[in-house]
Structure formats: C-alpha cells, structure tokens
Amino acid sequence: MELRGDSCVTLNDGRKMPVIGFGTYAPPQFSKRLAEDGVKVALEVGYRHIDSAFIYKNEVEVGQAIKQKIADGTVKREDVFYTGKLWSTFYTPDRVRQGLEKSLTNLQLDYMDLFLIHSPIEFKPGDDLLPTDENGKPIYHNTDIRDTWKALEECKDAGLVRSIGVSNFSKRQIELILNCPDLKYKPVCNQVECHIYLNQSKLQEFLKSHDIVLVAFSVLGSSRDQKWIDQNSPVLLEDPVLNCIAEKVGRTPAQVALRYLLQRGAVVLAKSFTPARIKENFQVFDFQLSAEEMKTLDGLNRDMRYMDIRQWKDHPKFPFNDEY
C-alpha cells in the first residue's frame, strides 16, 4: 500500500478521511493554548485531519486555530477533516443534536466532517459532565445506544455532520447498531486505543469485514495523565525492540510505531505539542517496514491498555470486559 502525505482512506459512505490525524487531548494541568498552537503547527506542516472532543474542553481553541489557518490561506475549510465526539451526558435522543450544536458553536464551524459517540458508557444527562452521587460514585444512565445512533443519523441528514461513527465500542456493541432493522447509515469507523502493545488485530479484522475503519489513538503510548493512567505502565517509545527497528531503518521510534499501524490499514492520530515532534510524526510516508519487521512488531502485542477506565467497570455497557 503506497502512502503519501495526502493519503486518504475512503469511508463506507464514500467520503475520504486522511490517514494521519492530529490529536488534541492534553491532561487538565496543561494550558488549552497548547491545543491552539499545536493545531496551527499541524496544519502548517501538512496535517489535514484534526481530532478533538467536547470533554477535552479545548474546542474553542482548536476552532480558533482552524479559523486562523483558513484566514491566512494555509487551508480552505473543505481541506480540513474535523472529528468531534458526543460526550456521554448527551446520549438521550433529545440531547444528541444539542451536544453536537454546542460543539459546533465552540468550534465556530457550520458542520463536522465526522462525529463519534465517544464511548458506550453513559452518564446521567445534565450539565455535570462527570456526575457523581454523595459518595463520589458515578451516576450512570442507560439509553438504548440504537436510539442515540438514530438521532445521530438525523444530524447527518440535517447536514450538521458529514459522517458518523463510534469510539471505544466492542464488537458486540457495534453489531447492535449494524443489526438495527431500520439502520440508515453504518458507522464509518471505530476509534479505539491501538499501538504495538494493543494491536487490536481481532477487532480490526471484524471491522474490515463490515467496511468500518479502525482509527487508532494512544498510538505512541499515552500522555500518562495521572487521573487515567497507571504510572507503572511501560513507556511505549522506550521499547527495546521498537528502538532496535527504528535504528535499523534510520527513523525515530515514534515514526516506526506510526508506520506500523498505517501499513496495517489503520488511520492514526498522532499527538504532540512540540513543533519539532508534530513535524517528525508526519514524516512517515517516505519509508516502508519490511514484512519481517511488521511481524516482529506484531509479536510485541500484550493486550495492554493504557486507558482501561476501570473506575467505570461496573457500568452495564463497559466495553472492555468483551474479548474485543
């Protein structure tokens, strides 16, 4: 598969998605300005796919960066593929469009290119994004995800979003949507954690069989946010096998980690707020990993999640109890 800087994958609704995207999440202690500056650099370097979410609380800054780069002629709106996500307090059908419109207002955009259900886990609808009871326990909710999906289809028909998909869903949860008797649009993608330690090969095979793209996040490991990540988990970019291959092909470990997933047909989200690294992560189109190197990297899989969200494992729709 030949990949260039402008390489795209064709989604099952006929739209094209750039195979490398710029991820904008940062732990809360970091300034939201980093997202704005990062997006500007990314667009200047050549990224045309920007990924954010309502819960990241940086949509205003991300939108501002896109607006500025359109104003100065770096890009046109139609060049930018923007992905947003419906947060888990907006899953009741009457709140889906509301959630989308809040994001569009933050971003100063008329439409999104892709809008995802952020996770199968739902919280009590309301203004509190992570509602808890008096004992600090999360307050869950349980809308039929098919009803949420139907409301998303209506947003697509209304022209507010071009493509719709899901994130953090298991095979079983995607099948639930696919088996809707009155399904109008299939999910175009499932955005999930995916990297050399969690290569998601079974999930990817299932998705491929339904013409659904796997979009990979945490591809370089994780931002090691103390709120979510076990601080004893291994640092992916320090993996000796990965480093050995990187040295052999004359690339950085990050470039090899990205290239591995691209060659497997995944769309990757690369995240950094350091200009030099943002640029470096985009330079993955002018080299190829051999079949042997790919096989070696396959062998590093240990089904290890950085984002295991175990604090919500008692939710009836917790996705990670399923095999994949």
UniProtKB/TrEMBL annotation:
GO terms for molecular function: oxidoreductase activity; structural constituent of eye lens. Signal peptide: none annotated. Gene3D superfamilies: NADP-dependent oxidoreductase domain (3.20.20.100). PROSITE patterns: ALDOKETO_REDUCTASE_1, ALDOKETO_REDUCTASE_2, ALDOKETO_REDUCTASE_3. The record marks 85 as: Lowers pKa of active site Tyr. Residues 20-301 form the NADP-dependent oxidoreductase domain. It comes from the Eukaryota. The active site is at residue 56. Keywords: Acetylation, Eye lens protein. Substrate binds at residue 118. Pfam families: Aldo_ket_red. Transmembrane segments: none annotated. Belongs to the aldo/keto reductase family. This is Rho crystallin.
